[in-house]
Amino acid sequence: MAVTKILARKGRLDIGINYVLNGDKTEERVLTAHLNCDPGRECRQMLDTKRAVGKTDGVQYYHMIQSFKPGEITPELALEIAKEFTQEHLPGYETVIGVHVDREHIHAHILFNSVNADTGEKYHSNAQSYYSQIRGISDRLCREHGLSVIMQGESAKAVSYIEWLRQSRGQPTFHSMLEADLRTAIQDANDLGHFFLLMEHKGWEISHGNRLGFRLRGQERFMYPGRKNPLFTEDGIRSAIQGNLEDIEAGRRPAVIYRPPFQPYKKYPKYTGFMALYVHYLYVLGKIGQRQYPPRMTPQLRQEVMKSEWYREQFAFLRDNAIATQADMTAFQTRTEETLANLTKQRTILNVRKKKRRSLYAALADAEALAPAKALYEEGLSGMEAEFAKYMEAVTVLERCGIPKDRLMTEKAEIYEQLAETNRQIRAERKKLALCREIQSRLPQIEKEIEKIETKDEVIRDDDRRR
Fold first, then answer.
1. How would you classify the pairing of strands 32-35 and 95-100?
2. What is the pLDDT of residue 94?
3. What's the rounded Cα separation, in Å, for the pair 425 and 340?
4. Whether the Cβ atoms of residue 10 and residue 60 lie closer than 8 Å to each other
5. Distance from C-alpha of 126 to C-alpha of 40, rounded to nearest angstrom
6. Angle at 442 between CA 440 and CA 444, to 5 degrees
């Protein structure tokens, strides 16, 4: 499964290229590739192409990212898929590829020149080209390599204002409920007939006309999701179900997908302390944002309303960690600081291990990266003397260390993976501490704002009674 996005950039080419080819993220540039340009000369060649056709303004390059599901793919396969995508979708464009493995999910970065070196034309990207080309090619390549494909057919077509408004507020719409039930039924169905049975059990009436239509019992009109997303046509549903069965037979997905049991509605608990204060303030800000509260919208109050999402995040943090009093906050901070100190110590140990092996890891990377140059040198190609000498030096270092190459590569991968995971945990713990400090610093201001608003509200009510 690959999540794809493409970004148009007007900044400096060399900064983007250095980020994509960052050795710390790409195993010392082992997980990199170049198409239609030479290593070390990428930026110069892209700029020369722009100058040659007089198109040096505007978008300088495009940056595409393919993010893969954790544990589903190897870095080498991610690089291969990125290269196949580039060869198919970007012929003639100078491109650099880097597969980053510094996070828990492997992701490929594809940076290419905005001007085609063969035709001189500039690349243009829009919603239609994204879904029909970039997303389509990426999904097909993932499917060909045995990876899962996201069943999320977002449409480039417009939606009604009411539907857009409800979506922007996080409220469900009939279309969103239908699509959620369709995806669940497709995942659980054994064949098309079973799919229709599951949809009827979910409360949907089905119209088998020229287009497949659905409506909830009691609705007047049918909805035809296949108009916007081919996945929800009869042929698309049948193909998706068949793909599920093939994945089950190949062992790539379970035969039965676990669904959490239905949970009846539970009343909200009665909050106290910090959480009660946040609930009250969020209520007040929500009313003010809807213009249902007496106080006039001052610039300061407007800023508080705009920060309401941030306050919601802080409240969720307090609720999830059961922090209601200052004592709870102090205890949580102490535990977090201890965890952070242990993680920092663990990272130091890993960095020491990495430093001890630095020369071997560098030689390993050089041996892998310069193997093509060594082959060219042996074929008699001139200009490869320095690369060949560096390759032989790396091979000599590896032979003298007495450690098998496969074991050394496994050890290096484990250390890099452990470092990435430790850094991720450190960032999470630091974020918790930052949230604690932010909450404690904001509490007096929240209390003052609530007191000011309630006082003004009381004054307005008194004036109304006198009139």
1. antiparallel
2. 96
3. 8
4. yes
5. 31
6. 90
As a whole number of angstroms, the distance between CA 401 and CA 395 comes to: 10
The structure tokens 């608003």 sit at: 453
> Contacts from 239-248 at CB under 8 Å and sequence distance 24+?
240/151, 240/186, 241/186, 241/189, 241/190, 241/191, 241/192, 241/195, 243/143, 243/149, 244/186, 244/187, 244/189, 245/190, 247/148
Tokens coding 79 = 């690089």
In this structure, how many other beta carbons lie within 10 angstroms of the beta carbon of residue 78?
25
Amino acid making up residue 445? Q
Residue 363 in contact with residue 398, Cβ under 8 Å? yes
Using one digit for the tens of pLDDT, what is the confidence trace for 107-132?
A: 999 999 999 999 999 998 775 666 66
Tokens 């200052």, residue? Answer: 326
CA–CA distances in Å: residue 143 to residues 1, 42, 139, 286: 8, 31, 6, 45
d(CA 443, CA 325): 12
**Predicted structure pTM score:** 0.41
How far apart, in whole angstroms, are the C-alpha atoms of residue 315 and residue 184? 31
